Queue: 4 jobs
Job 1
Amino acid sequence: MTASFDLNPQKLLSTSEPATAMEIKLRRRSRISSAMRYSVLLIFGLIMLYPLIWLIGASFKTNSEIFASPSFWPKDPTLSGYIKGWETSTPYTFGRFFWNTFLIITPKVIGTAISCTLVAYGFARFDFPGKRILFMTVIATLLLPNVVTRIPQYLLFRDIGWLDSFLPLWVPSAVAGDAFFVFMLIQFLRAIPRDMEEAARVDGANTLQTLVYIVVPMLMPAIVSVCLFQFMWTMNDFLGPLIYLSSIDKYPVSLALKLSIDTTEAFDWNQILAMSVLALAPSLTVFFIAQKYFIEGISTGGVKG
Amino acid sequence: MAELQLKSVEKTYGSGFKAVHGINLTVQEGEFMVLVGPSGCAKSTTLRMIAGLETITGGEIRIGERVVNDIVPGKRGIAMVFQNYALYPHMKVKNNLSFGLRLKRRPKPEINDATQDVSKVLEIEELLERLPKQLSGGQAQRVAVGRALIKHPEVFLFDEPLSNLDAKLRAYMRVRITDLHKRLKAEGRPATVVYVTHDQVEAMTMGDRICVMREGHIMQVADPVTLYERPANAFVAGFIGMPEMNLVDAVLTTNQVPHITIGDQTIRVDEGLGERLSETTGPVKFGIRPQHLEVCPQGTENALSGTVTTVEFLGHEINLHIGIHGQIFVAVVPSDHLTAIPKRGDAVALKPIGHRIHLFDRYSEQNISLAGL
């Protein structure tokens, strides 16, 4: 459809001729329409964000005020929730739990990125005997509910002697155990033309060099998304640590939050909320840092479309 | 630089489909060889087999003295320019150019010199710091050529490199590439080139020799003039030339001089056709280029009479489509040769220029009018 007149108010204003009645009418109509659109968006945005805003507000409230007023703005802001919450009722501070989470997440995210890229590259670019069956197996594990494999996995790790260590939490993922990420990268790779890889082969690159110098840079937006998802899901994972970790000194943040609910008789909600805010912070920070990358998308440009 | 040899090269896919049927081709050192043919004729597959991007299932490929059947692309001494350039999108132009040399761990000064050298030849010096997405089609094309040039390969392979450019730029780049080839030859480092295209204008203007392919077979390998004037078979005759050659079923009889019967009209042809024929009678395909038909008034002796069905006015010339017994002949007439532009429905006569006639065996499609040439 081609527009017969320009609705951009800026453009209308910039013309030196005085506005006609028609133009004024159109300008007003476009202003009203955008005002409506923005208010609807704003209202729904606020409704979605309200729990988060309330959470942050409530973490500065006293325990009694939390249940007294539905408003998110604290009457007498206090940091006691943060100070006491950080100390916890255990011999360890929350710093220890954050460190534990870091120790799980780091090898898991790095391992996932490397292993899934390798596996996806293999599936997307090479023909080998049994490829179809193997690929179907990968997809089948994707459809399998996680819960089903929990017990056999637990028994397996018990026999290896990995219980109460971080290993069962990150090793499976670091050897491309997450079929979802493999699948995601394969789909992304399929959309990238092979010409660049062929050009690299003609330039003398071997398979691994082609992967590292050519494929990975083009795949970067997808790899960043994989890392991001893995980071957030691991940060939020509760069941895994609950099953495999028994000593408190190895608890990650997700378990430690539950800890403060268990050990005190009257729950100090402001402490729990304060620590929840802190637990959210890394995920949000990582998300906003990485956002730039996966929007940038560098896969296009080398090939004329 | 080296000679490239293909000996009974075959390609059969896993599905059993045979794409290339034992082709034999020798590209001389420093020669510009064009592979041309309609889509699906396996010209690109052949090129990719030479590059090593496609395995061969039979025969032998030699570059220089080496059999390269089982050698990886990077070690064959070839460089390739791809249809869509295939520049590495995340690397600056200079890094795109030097990627191959960096992989070989050449010393830095050497890499810099080579990059400067190539960018000067291709006039892309001011583009070195840009990313591929900041280049126009023509610029990207030159960078892609540069990436091949910098390696001083034994054989250059081009896979329809100009098909993504607009018509004007294509004509310009065509000249640039042939100039480059000539310049390299003059500088004493001749480049052996295999160039794939589906565009016969590119093929005719660029190639030292042209290899016309069809469905995995080589139809003819020859220089452009031979290809145009002495096509070995009806396919080559129809493929080369614009508008394409008129090819119609006819019957050849010889009664002292050859006579050609189309429908119920028979014309006798002199001008030495008789001496050229390797067969004297039988069903044939009669071939005459649109430029070699003389449009005469109706009733002219030894001309085929027909009716104008379409008139295409192109300015300097006119394409006349003339129906004769249900078969359409196209004749190209320079417009200043005509006093009045014929109209649809006009009755005219067509007189083929005798020494330009080609006759092909109707079944084998081989040219039977090449004897003594």
Note: The radius of gyration of chain A is 26 Å.
Job 2
Amino acid sequence: MPQLNPEFFVSQLFWLAVFFTFLFVFLWRVSLPRIATVLEKRQNKIDENLSSAKELQEQAVEIEKKINDQINKAKLETDEKIKETINALQENVSSQLSSLDKDLEKKVSDAEKEILKSKDDQMKNINNEIVNITKLTVGKITDIELSDNELNKVIETHKGNFN
Amino acid sequence: MAAKDSPLKQFEIDPISNIELGGYNISFTNSSFAMLITVLMITLFLTLTVNTRSIIPSRMQLISELMYNFIAQLLSDTVGDNGKRYFPFVFSLFMFVLIGNMVGMIPYQFTFTSHIIVTFALAAVVFIGVTILGFINHGIKFFTFFYIPGVPFYMHPLLIPIEVISYLSRPISLSVRLFANMLAGHTLLKVFAGFVVSMPFFTGVFPLAFIVALTGLEILIAFLQAYVFAILTCLYINDAYHLH
């Protein structure tokens, strides 16, 4: 078996030492640091992207919150405005209604007064007419001339029968 | 079968240029050439593919990164945070054995991992390094590694020698595992290749088909043995940190 022939043992060991040492030193000093930097760079990039994504997400959440706040605020404001307007309108209506009521009351009372006045006038006229008619009738039938005062007395006593 | 057709002929070392240093024969041989090719392939591939250092890797860069992550994961799984500083060594070891095995799969190419002296030297480096590491970390207490707690006291005279022997046989098992796998695989391929030529008529296609299947298996084994070599190294490093 050629493997057990010691003729080239020293040569094998020598060249193994040379090449393996070279390989080890080269990989240790050149190749592996290169690969390590590439991997590190990539990891950094990934981390960076992840953190920026997280930041953006946080910002988005904040913006959403702001929007919601503003919407709520706007809602509250409009609600208040609507209430104010309703109140103002109600006040307006009630004041107008009360003024109308007053007007109407005044008109009604005026009308009542006028009616009463005209009623009194009419009653007075009727009295006069009754006196006149009675005077004429009595004068024609008899020759008794009645004074106005006497007639008025009689009418007053019988007034309850007219109405 | 003539000697020149022997299945073991492929393991013979041929000097390419004869060099002598201090009375020792350090000829540059076909084995050294295979190592040179292996080292060149690894260094060039790992350097050139990562040259652009792009964040979005090319396919080739991705392969380099995959290998890097594969061994880094292996180390962190077995040793933990302590293992980071041994990463260059374990990675070099893994790549050297893996590409050495793969270079050996090229027809007519020499497989240096099929030589016990080479695998033993690698295993010895691991063994000596790990032992020194154990003494650095634990001092004289490292010897308690051979003492198994929770065993009846009368068993210790039996168990401690067993533990010592198993510890000392680590470099042998580590190197012979790799060497024997490579030797057996390549010998088997060669034997069946001999059948292809020597069998009559067209029956030679059967061993040929077998060779094709076996080549796939051998590539798997080439990877597996490099992986086993690396993971055992990791486990030994872990032992040097954590005694029982």
Note: The longest helix of chain B spans residues 205-241.
Job 3
Amino acid sequence: MAEIRVQNLRKAFGEFVAVQDSNFVVEDGEFFVMLGPSGCGKTTTLRMIAGLELPTGGKILLGGEDVTMRRARERDIAFVFQLFALYPHMNVRKNIGFPLLAQGMASAEIRARVDETAKLLRIDHLLDKSVSGLAGGDRQRVALGRAIVRRPKCFLMDEPLGTLDTEFRDLMVHELRELHNRIHATTVYVTHDQMEAMSMADKIAVMNHGVIEQFGSPREIYDRPATMFVAEFIGSPPMNFLKFGGGLAKGAKEIVVQGARVTVPEVREDVAPADMALGIRPEHIRFDDASKLRGAIYGTEYLGTTQIVAVETADGIIKARVAAGIHLSPGEQVGLALSSARLSLFEKGTGRAVKTAMYEQTAEARHG
Amino acid sequence: MSLTTAHSVVAPSTNSKRIAGVLVVGYALISIVPLLWIFATSFKTPPDSIAYPPKIVFQPSIEGYCNLFTTRTRQTPEYINSLGPATGFCDETVRKRNMVIAGPSNFLPRFVNSLIIAFGSTFCAVFLGTLSAYGFSRFKVPLADDLLFFILSTRMMPPIAVAIPIYLMYRELGLSDTALGMILLYTAVNVSLAVWLLKGFIDEIPREYEEAAMIDGYTRLQAFWRTVLPQATTGIAATAIFCLIFAWNEYAFAALLTSGTAQTAPPFIPTIIGEGGQDWPAVAAGTTIFLVPILVFTILLRKQLLRGITFGAVRK
């Protein structure tokens, strides 16, 4: 196993820049997820780490070695494809043993290693079956088997659960994480599904238009989004934004939104007057008639233990997540109380989050 | 509850099955009757073969096959009687017509020429076709579309249109009447078909197969050999059959460019001459034997061809 270090990585296809100046480090044994909408450059980044694409610029270091321009077969990595790429003309055993065959390993040893791997993944009863008859989850396990059988430096996975139905997908998310906990392989996992990313990752990089918008733990990314894109992309329903104007001074603890005073985490930088946005997670909204921030109930979505309530305010609809027991009827006027310590402030033009006391906790937590 | 009224929207109805059956049988009759006629003629005696009205029922004879494989000379009955007992069935048959077998005919060497040239050119065309189709399918080839169009354009006129330049060129190069010359010529004609057909098949094979193999430690050539080629067998089989049929049946160039050592069966068969005219049973016998290799080849590859029809229909 090894650490993956990506430095100033860049890839352009003619005029189109797929990946812009990416920098990140995946530590040894870490489960790292690249998350983003389709076309954001996450798969291209993964393919460059694998050696299937050559970068236009920058460096890739695998376990301290510069492999930027090395051939895929010389990198000692394993790749799990979205469509699994299981060879239909080979049975399960031959598929899993295929990478070992390339190393010229003796057939008895290949047999032993394949058996061991199959046991680990609980597919030993399928070894002599043809891959074309397998169910989605089993195909996935065979593909994983082919990846781990070689004990490579790291695993790269390109939306490996993308084609599975929901039932298998939930199961495989648990299995993948459990497998990772057992073998501690450095893993780079690409997905557009935030649920997969949040539930499996040690670290997440959120990408958009070829740029890494934020790199951090799932908790950091959810609680302290670095940009409006991240805030909107992560979370279901996404973060609500309420616009407000004017600049911010260092030390400010209050802003005015729609005529209501809202206490926010202490601002730690001066911001010139511009269009700003207040970011509120749906679960940080309570209904409180005393609040001056008001709106009318637009509709509700019942989810069992909670409900998502759409409230029409002067600045459009915002969604709140509240206990399912509260009874609300459309048209009803409500006051909105916000959890002051958990609010984010953004500069609308750049989408950047303003430095506040809440964001500093991150830095403290990281260094301390 | 009765299920007799239930009908499926995908399964064909009894009526449409009947209509389809009639059409298939009708088509089969139209295409099989001439073949049956040739087959029957090959077992007729020369007088029966030109009898009018044609004989449907006749006494079968293998005289045609005997005549196909031998050359004969006419002798006096006294001489034939002095020869002693006939050495074989054919010997006996020709003696009845006051002839003796003088030696083997040229049919067998011509047939072997056909085999060498047709299979040789098919192998070359499919080999080159597979590699270039793979190249066009997987790599960024500069001007790929123009090149593919150029390759296709070689099929836009009948090959015989360039017969005279090729004839002159082959004479200069010493390729006239050589097996190599014919293999090169048929390969050149077939390779465009092979590239286009195979490119379609290889495009269907996901790149991930080779990428997975290359990440797992194989070179591109090994990945191609172990993952792409086994998946392309269907396409290769179909392409090979098309190429083989063309090369096997080709008449015009063979008649023009070969006359002796490299002559193939198609120009040879019609030149079989019997006494006082065309020896139709021998011609029919030659044609019947000529059909066999293609028949065998197609039957052997039938499974691949059938798979080719359903390939990719259900899942990618």
Note: The radius of gyration of chain A is 24 Å.
Job 4
Amino acid sequence: MLTRAYQHSLRGSHLPAGQPLLEVDNISLRFGGVKALRDISLTVTEGDVHAIIGPNGAGKSSLLNCISGLYHPQEGEIRLHTVPGSRGGHRQDADRTTGEVRTHTLTSLAPYKIARLGVARSFQNIELFSAMTVLENLMLGRHIHMRKGVLSSMLWLGPARRQEIEHRQLVEEVIDLLQLQAVRNKHVGALAYGVQKRVELGRALCLQPALLLLDEPMAGMNAEEKEDMARYILDVHELAQVSVVLIEHDMNVVMDISDRVTVLDFGAKIADGTPDEVKADPAVIEAYLGAEEEDQAVREAVAHMEQQVAQETAKEGDRG
Amino acid sequence: MAATATGIHHRSYTSELRLRATRAEYFRLGLMTVLLLVLPFVLDNYWLSIANTILIAVIGAVGLNILVGYTGQISLGQGGFMAVGAYSSAILSDRIGLPTPLAILLAVLLTAAVGVFFGLPGLRLKGLYLAIATLASQVIIEFLVRRDIGDFLTEGLGYINVDRLAFLGFEIGGRDVFEQQWYWILLVLAVLTVISARNIFRTGLGRSFMAVRDQDIAAEAIGVNLTRAKLTAFAVSSGFVGLAGSLTAHYSEVVSWEKFTLDVSILYLAMIIVGGLGSIAGAVYGAVFMTLLPELIRRLANALESTMPFLGDQLPAVRNATFGAVIIAFLIFEPRGLDRIWQRMKDYVRFWPFRY
């Protein structure tokens, strides 16, 4: 539960915990002849940290791009369940819902419409607005909740300014949560890599997401930075109760912080379950460590080659 | 990096959101206001006409910078959009007989609509390709107003004579007060333009424009509707440009196609490059600088007539060469323009005697 006096809930979903939030139903994605994803199905449960792992090129980022609408899969369907609640974002309002679950098909929606449904994401290669300050980047995270009339913006006094201040309050809470106070007014282009990753997480959080998609939030970090980032993600998950889909390479981190793990390899799903189940799955071990039969075959081939070389030297020795 | 003044502690978001915080900033603002108010009483009519040209250029350059500098959509169609504003407001006020302020307002809206139409390629094209597409808008509009098919625009004259500006019982006076009265009108409009453009970029609308410029995929992923953001930017920008165009028409009292050629588009691009892309103040500095430059060159040529007579003989060529040299010099030495130079000067003073 919350320890600090945050006034806004960062959680955009009003589904009860344990219900399916996102259903990926048999999607396939092709780029010409390349099958990036083959018949992938998975269900993200409200309240979970759901990790997607797999070797390079397994299709993890493609899957995330399908969910957030940057790619449109040729087959299958992605569904998001939401409970419409008040959009105010105040904590008291967060629990007041109409109760009925609405299902949205994301498969052919434009990315900005998916964002408006509450799906926020970060990118593998940081995609921040580098010419702007941290504050402006985070305020952009509030974009879907803001009115953007041309005339009222030009006038500034009145509704436009009131709106800026209103949203600034939530942004400041995100700044607090992610400890970005010191860099608030710095241009993001000038910040260290780890901080930029945190700003990106913050920008996604400012959306008040129903579902947070994080594409390798710890890529290229050292052990200490990874631990920090893992703690921030856990904070977000536990304090703000946001459901998270996480792509990560570091198995230790994944096994530590996720409730559920899906493993992809060559565009296909090879395992799905709790971290312990996945760790014991032979298919996963094969994808990550290589199969034992393969090792055996290699050993035989090497022995065979050695034998041949020995025979040839023996023949040459006979002639000489 | 710009200097951050220390010792400024905001106690409310309202005070932080103000454009000016330090006493020095308010002092400079006051100085500027006094200067602008005193100017028409000090300058003669010739210099006032230059000041008026500058004020119109300020409106146009601010408009262009909204599109090019802030939203990252390169436009070579400035001249064409100004032509739309000028022709429509001249026709609406003089031939149809609408009150001039209403005609100007309608011209602004019409130019915004035309801007949106020619902004449609911007939904698919970026960078150089968009530049070529907007060049097409320039060429098309220039062709239409120049050929004037069916003599609809100029009724066969080739130009439109515009009546002296009059509204609400007020009419611009004769030769001796003409420039001065226009100065006040243009000053008010230019100041309003600058303030409203500045306001746009401290709200969500302006941030969404900049998001499109910086990282369009990320912008879409946080919920910015790219189509809407780009077309709004085209509309807002063209609106200001149309205002500049229609003011040109009423101020110079004649509308002809020569005033809205590709040269004009390039001159305005030069203004915002020299002034500073993505800065409202930069657009103002650029407009002032690029409008004064030909005058300064002319004066210099006159002064050096005895020693270097070829300067005066070849004035147009010298002027063009200087224009080119200035743009290249800025691109090489200070791509962020006069605005950045001014920032650095302020920083230098603030940190003195330290360097940073």
Note: The two ends of chain B are 10 Å apart (CA to CA).
